[in-house]
């Protein structure tokens, strides 16, 4: 097999650096979801940690590397979860973190970034503008720019989820992975292709933010003019070429889902699994809802990768419209 940028020995070593609070997350069969979805469903729960998303696995690696190199500061662009996780990982290591985010980002995420002591700068545009601004700050201040999915630590941190899944390989057929910048999909995909090649790796994006999925199918970078989805964690428009190259090596498929399926999946997770998920974390189940025949009789694992929501919006999503 052609090589990705990732290395399984480094991913194993990463486990010794990442705070155990992010590791060995629950993986369990959720039978209550199965009658609705028509397949066997297991959940990998990445929300029961201090930042309520999987991103802490990667930021622990980034921050420990920075501290070891004697760096004092870093800047990143974030839709919210990377920024929150980097702020958490930096706090105990004496690192100053600046997070650049869209002013339209989920307010609960921005509040947590501030509460964790990071400096927050808002841009009047989307995540791609935040990426440009973060790069400009890094150049101006001569500090490390942490680029999610491009920086291999962010992928290898997420890839530790893959090790935990590979340890249970044989019990499931397919892993459904939310696809944003691609750190999670390339990380988990790398490990599964190496340690459990029989497992199908399926990435899921919203139809409203399809850039990396389109790029995967066309085998070249495809950008979009805009992104319009409630799944804020995956709403990028400019795929990173090196990440696409890795994704092409480790993903079996990438599919797009509609907003209404994401909302139905959020409701299912609350009603049948007792889980608050953010929209990005519901993408896997949305994919099953849209193609039940594809997954019928299979055992799928879906990664519940974040639960940072603004409660008023979340309540609207999970409350069915009154019928008259
Ligand atoms: C909750 C959640 N799900 C999915 C993703 C997408 O992950 P990636 O950018 O690693 O593809 C993110 C990214 O921040 C996220 O916060």
From TrEMBL:
Where in this chain does the record put each Tryptophan synthase beta chain-like PALP domain?
22-306
Q: Which UniProt keywords apply?
A: Lyase, Pyridoxal phosphate
Coiled-coil region: none
**What cofactors does this protein use?**
pyridoxal 5'-phosphate
Q: Which Pfam families does the protein's record reference?
A: PALP
Source domain of life is: Bacteria
The record's InterPro entries line, in alphabetical order, gives: Ser/Thr_Dehydratase, TrpB-like_PALP, TrpB-like_PALP_sf
Designated name of the protein: Pyridoxal-phosphate dependent enzyme
Species the sequence originates in: Actinacidiphila epipremni
């Amino acid at each position: 097999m052609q090589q990705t940028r990732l290395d399984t020995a480094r991913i194993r070593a990463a486990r010794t650096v990442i705070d155990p609070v992010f590791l060995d997350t629950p993986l369990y069969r959720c039978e209550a979801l199965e009658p609705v979805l028509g397949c066997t469903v297991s959940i990998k729960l990445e929300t029961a940690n201090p930042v309520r998303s999987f991103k802490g696995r990667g930021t622990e690696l980034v921050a420990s590397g920075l501290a070891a190199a004697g760096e004092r500061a870093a800047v990143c662009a974030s839709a919210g979860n990377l920024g929150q996780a980097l702020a958490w990982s930096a706090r105990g290591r004496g690192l100053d973190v600046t997070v650049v985010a869209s002013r339209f980002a989920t307010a609960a995420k921005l509040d947590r970034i501030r509460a964790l002591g990071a400096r927050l700068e808002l841009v009047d545009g989307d995540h791609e503008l935040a990426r440009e601004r973060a790069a400009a700050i890094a150049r101006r201040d001569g500090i490390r720019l942490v680029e999610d999915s491009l920086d291999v630590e962010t992928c290898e941190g997420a890839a530790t989820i893959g090790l935990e899944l590979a340890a249970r390989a044989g019990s499931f057929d397919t892993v459904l992975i939310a696809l944003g910048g691609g750190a999670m999909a390339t990380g988990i995909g790398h490990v599964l292709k190496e340690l459990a090649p029989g497992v199908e790796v399926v990435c899921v994006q919203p139809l409203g933010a399809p850039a990396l999925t389109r790029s995967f199918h066309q085998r070249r970078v495809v950008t979009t003019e805009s992104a319009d989805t409630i799944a804020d964690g995956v709403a990028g428009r400019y795929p990173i070429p090196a990440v696409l190259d890795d994704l092409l090596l480790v993903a079996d498929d990438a599919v797009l889902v509609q907003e209404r399926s994401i909302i139905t999946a959020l409701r299912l997770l609350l009603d049948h699994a007792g889980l608050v998920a953010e929209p990005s974390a519901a993408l896997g189940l949305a994919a099953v809802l849209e193609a039940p025949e594809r997954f019928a009789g299979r055992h799928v694992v879906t990664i519940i990768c974040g639960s940072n929501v603004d409660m008023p919006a979340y309540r609207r999503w999970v409350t069915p419209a009154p019928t008259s």
